[in-house]
Design brief:
It contains 22 helices and ten strands. By secondary structure, it is of the alpha/beta class. Helix 9 runs parallel beside helix 11. The protein binds zinc ion.
Amino acid sequence: MNFVRKIATIALFLTFSIRPTQAGNEHEHLQYLPSYLDLEAASNGTIGDIQAIQLFSDRRPLAQKVELSRFNKKQINYLIENGSLRMLSEYLATGYPEQTADDILRGFFEITEFHPNKLDSYLASTNIRNKLFINQEKLIEASVSKYLEKAIKSESIKSIFSVPSFMMEKKKTMANLQKLYSMKDCQTQFFLSIPRGQLYGGSNAGNLDYNLDLLSKNFNEPWMSGIDISGSILESNDLANGADIDKNMKKTLETNLKKIFRISGENKMPIRIHAYERANAGSFYNTFWKTLENCKQVDCAPPIIRIGHINALDEDAIKKLRRLSKRKSNPINFLFEANLESNQILHDAKIEDLVKKIEQLHRNDFTVVMGSDGLGILGSDSNFKRSLQKLDDAGMRSKSIERLIADAHRPIPGMKMTPYMEALMKAEEVKLKLEMLGHKQNRLIDKCKIGFNGILRQFKMK
Ligand SMILES: [Zn+2]
């Protein structure tokens, strides 16, 4: 090794050793990604005051969804009835008189320990963000760009976004966003978000038609990667978006789910289903199960079904999904997304239970990857390394940790990586395995050393 190469190798090693690791974010909502600081920078500081007044000036700035939340009903009604910035300021100021208008607005973008009810805050933030971005495509581009400017490479190694239709219909914005990510050597997929409520028909039928039309018009666009049946945050076993489900709605749900699975199957489009976040049974799950059970030819099922959450999975659900994945004719390809911080913050999930669920999925031969589910709202705590550490602290077995690290560093199913990305991923994987498990297993250290030497050799060859 000559001197320059030696220095380069040491620099490479140091780069890999000192930075935090995220290994991608496989469950994210595009509009929840930028932090308040990114947004403030992207709007040249206007978000603090002028924007705030616009955002809260309507009488009903928060969507109906918030009303359905069973939590702190009094507070929510108060916010809805008096939805102005002044009232919101007063509301937040009651407990925290020192806060400025900027602090208060920021408080509605990011969940901090000060929030009395974190689920409501998350929903409020979602609504405010949707409202903010709806006619400002440039702002989302600029704020994602701000985020990427300072994001470490590994943070953006893989990103899979749920994208609301009001963003997806701006073709130029989507193309620009994809370019921003590919410049960072990031594998990126954008899934069109179709809220689950639209599948039940009624007054929502038009919205579903609109979304399916948007999808079919843009099938061939490189940024239209898949379909996301979203909206499980307020699910319960008996209700769909807060409403009782009648026979008619069940029938419509079945027809629509079948239709979407077929579109996905015929076009080889992956699907993510926001599910098992708070519920694991009831009409949605029955229909989901039945539709897949009855689909025995290739084209009626998605090439891959990403299950959006693991929080409410139980033994019965895992057994059913396993049966579908192991059957002889047309086995279904499932992948699970664990969003630990989101489940802990929004649904009071216990980390020990999440550990058990991931281990159980591994025992059943399923792949589990990690996501943030709102990095800009939930904060930097929701990154891969910290999640791994939490799992480790809560007693996860080394075998499962090792598997999570390995699966996090595989390409997104169906996507190709450049040799550079491959090397970067490999280096990340080796480094993380050493950090997380090196002290436990000598065997693993040896394996990692071999892996690392392999990477160095690769760079030497270039
Ligand atoms: Zn989500």
